[in-house]
Amino acid sequence: MPDGALPVLDVRDLKTVFKTRSGEVHAVNDVSFSLRPGELLGVVGESGSGKSVTMMSLLGLLPSPPAEVKRGQVMFEDKNLLDVDAETLRSVRGGKIGFVFQDPMTSLNPVFTVGVQIMEPLRKHMGMNKKQAAVRAQELLELVGIPDAKRRLGDYPHQFSGGMRQRVMIAIALACDPQVLIADEPTTALDVTIQAQILELMKDLRTKLGMAVIWITHDLGVIAGIADRVMVMYGGQVVEHAPVSTLFKDPQHPYTRALLKTIPTIQGDRAARLTVIEGQPPIIKAAPSACPFRNRCDVAFDRCASENPPRYDLGEGHDAACFFDARTGAPRDA
Amino acid sequence: MLIYTIRRLLISIPTLLFIAFVIFMLLELAPGDPMAQMPLTIPPEVKEKMRLALGLGEPWWVRFPLWLKQFFIVEPQYWIDNAFGTNFADGAQRIISFQSRSPVFDVIAERMPQTLWVVGMSYVVGVLIALPIGIISAYRQYSVFDQAGTFVSMIGFSVPPFFSGVLLIVIFSVQLKWLPSIYDTTHVVTDWDSFVFQLRQMIMPVMVLALQTTAQVSRYMRASMLDNLGQDYVRTARAKGMSESVVVLKHVLRNSMIPVITVIALGIPSIFGGAIITEQIFKVNGLGQLLIIALQGSDIPMVMTITFLLAVLIVMMNLIADVLYGILDPRIRYD
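YS: structure for the whole thing
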């Protein structure tokens, strides 16, 4: 952890497995990261790389069974969230840590008005009465840019468009002035123009409210626009982690480099085919003893199959989990 | 919603008229003779006169409109006359039972309370048991409780009331002698002891019918809860820090009740059908038993009227189910 204030959220060696009929699936493997107050941490990776599962593990939101958080430590306000009792955890969820989910079409309860759904956390965590909560709910809808907020509190989710519903979800997550907002692919289900609006809104709200944000996405373009730091995940592990400008200028992990190549551009040869990373992401059935990316990697060598690379510190808050040193073009010393 | 309800009510009029016609024609075409149970000593020509006196000499296109007139005009007039002391009916002919020669509606009114007590109570009991079973079974899927609930439902589905009823009588009345096997309709509740007696005689018929209801409704409840427990909005509710009881009993239950309410409403008429058998077994002289006796005696007006009343109940419950659906689910718009 280079310079700066104490982290607001500090995750160490988190490990989550899913118990299935064909054995355990190791979805999150020894993930460590920290989040400083007011910063925006981007988390990127393919589907199934463990991004969402990591974040849901933090707050115990995974259904158990089949999920089980095996070990690790999630420090928030001097408490390990993996050890606290259910009531303390509930007071953190929705109160101090807000969550925005991927699909706004299904994330709101269809039979309650959005007013009721926004007021719920306010009454629970802030101890507001009905009247105070209604006033605050109206403020929140105005904050996220929903016109005619007072009247719309009485509307049901199906009366809102997708983008508007995501704004409602954001309003719910922000209801109790959280210190951390976890946004799990909040724009994936929306079309591009609405996506841009939501991104603008989030940037704006972050400066206004000064909270720390974890933004999960598989869209590197989004990350480049809003993140301070980026964490790249693959096969349930953090493979590279760097300040956003460093990551785009000087990617060190072969997976990150491959990801950056897949971004389509509007310049140059129109006939050029989209770049893809060949192969499928792995489903990890045993505790990893090798680099999960080795089968798709263009610089893999024999060591990658026998050992799982640790995260090598490259200085200036940059680290990468690869035995191959891209700067020297040779394998690192064992 | 109001306009929709009124429209539905209007549409149900031709439906019911058609049902009445079908029932009438079925009875008309069915074999059977109201005179069949008369003593053999009555000469055939006298029997023929009796037949004519019952109105059976007239063709169906005369008798059917007459029945309609009696059912929809004369009977309500008598009802209003009784209630307000007016004289609209003016001595018009009511629907008369072939067997007892008394007005059909008077007999039905006599039999109704017993049936409502037993059938209505069993339905309420059945639903009240079924809902928590369904909720807990879904929330603790594959637990011991869930397995036990599945087993009981399977029994409720597969064991018919004429078997479970007799089984209960053998166990609790014959062997253990705890409960009476015959339902005493003349019993009046006046004090605590007579109330206890009423309870004791109701337990077995109510339980037999409730088992069926419980089996059905708890399965629907469980399936519906399971559907909803996996939804994204449940995760959202948990992420807001809501307690499990709020998540399950407010967010999930409210959504799960929507289809179950329909099942409950539509099940009300069918429980009357089930009661026909149960009433026979426990000697409850309710509507079901009345219908059986009327069928055996070819008492056409009685059979026609009871069957048609059941049809009215079915049509009304369908309408009520649809209206409730619209009230519970804000996404449904009927206008």
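YS: worth flagging: Chain B is about 75% helix and 0% strand.
IM: good catch. Also Chain B touches chain A through 21 residues (CB under 8 Å).
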